[in-house]
Amino acid sequence: MKPSPITPLILGRGRAGQAIAHAFNWLKSSGAELAEPRFVARGTNWEEACRGVARPLACIANPHGLHTKALLEVAGAGIGFALCEKPAAVTMDELAKLRDLPTRVGILHGYRQSWGVAKLKELLDSGALGRLVAIEGRYWQASAAERALNPSPQKTWKDDPALSGPFDTYLDLGTHWVDAASFLAGAAPEKIRAFRSIPSGSPSHRDAHVQLSIHYPHLTAMASVSKLIHGAGNHFEINLLGEAGTATWNFERPDEIRLGHGREMRLIRRLKDSAGSGLPPFHGLGWLEGYVAIASGMVAEMNGVSKGAYPTLPEHLRILRPMLDADWI
To answer: What domains can be seen in the chain, in order of their start residue?
Structure first.
């Protein structure tokens, strides 16, 4: 007997919630057995939301400070699978509550699912770069820069620490970069030292520029993470610095890696269709590629086809713990 289709139930109608809906609609249009995604109203009981739904998949995309509460409610309703925007927790107390969550949770760290980060890992594991000395990079945007030029910026949920948690840029963008670096390092950070800058007139929790020194068992990574870069787009970049070579991937050129040896540099380009959307090189979905890849992995796991290859909650908590326990300088 053919199983009932999976129904994505999405909490949150902002940019992330819409991205999740687009990802599932893309998979559905590509032949996946999925029901139309449904948006769950704020405050809805999850057991009520699942009424009449044979195979629910909870998707958490509400404000950061509400993620833990939502995941606990999803688990309490007996829902076996969920996707969650990062960060899953914004305090150490919340992190502890998620440690033994029975629900299988995928975290929407889309950059880790990209061709570029996967190719960097392949180069590293092949020995093409020699011994890895350091990982360095940046994640730059311009939203705080634009806000700084506005004499009367519009209030958003990120201005309320009850909704955003005690950080802005650090957990919003920094978690993505630390996740990708940790995947490449093959370990969770042992310790993080960090500096942050809060723009004049902004609430004390709205850090806009952060510099990170991330200490792993065998190397150190350094990153500049910022929403205060005037003129920036969505500049996510990772550099692997090896004794025998250097490799660089930049999200704004998603299907290319710059590979350096000595004084020479060459480009490696993606030649095959995307593992997420299935689209050819230089014709991908951009930011949505990661959402499609993670959603596809979760659907495959729910259907018993394969163990989903996507960032999981336990992995996320292992990088989130040192981030929440960082030494601020």
So the answer is: 1-107+280-329 (3.40.50.720), 115-270 (3.30.360.10)
Q: How far apart are alpha carbons 19 and 157 in whole angstroms?
A: 19
pLDDT tens sequence for the chain (329 residues)? 678 999 999 999 999 999 999 999 999 999 999 999 999 999 989 999 999 999 999 999 999 999 999 999 999 999 999 999 999 999 999 999 999 999 999 999 999 999 999 999 999 999 999 999 999 999 999 999 999 999 888 899 999 999 999 999 999 999 999 999 999 999 999 999 999 999 988 999 999 999 999 999 999 999 999 999 999 999 999 999 999 999 999 999 999 999 999 999 999 999 999 888 999 999 999 989 999 999 999 999 999 887 768 999 999 999 999 999 999 99
Residue 39 C-alpha from the chain's centroid:
21
Residue 71, phi then psi, degrees to nearest 5:
-65, -40
Other CB atoms within 10 Å distance of the CB of residue 184: 22
Taking the C-alpha atoms of residue 82 and residue 14, their distance in angstroms, rounded to an integer, is: 18
Counting Cα atoms < 13 Å in the Cβ hemisphere of 53 gives: 24
Question: Strand 7-11's sheet: what is its strand order?
Answer: 38-40, 7-11, 56-60, 81-84, 104-107
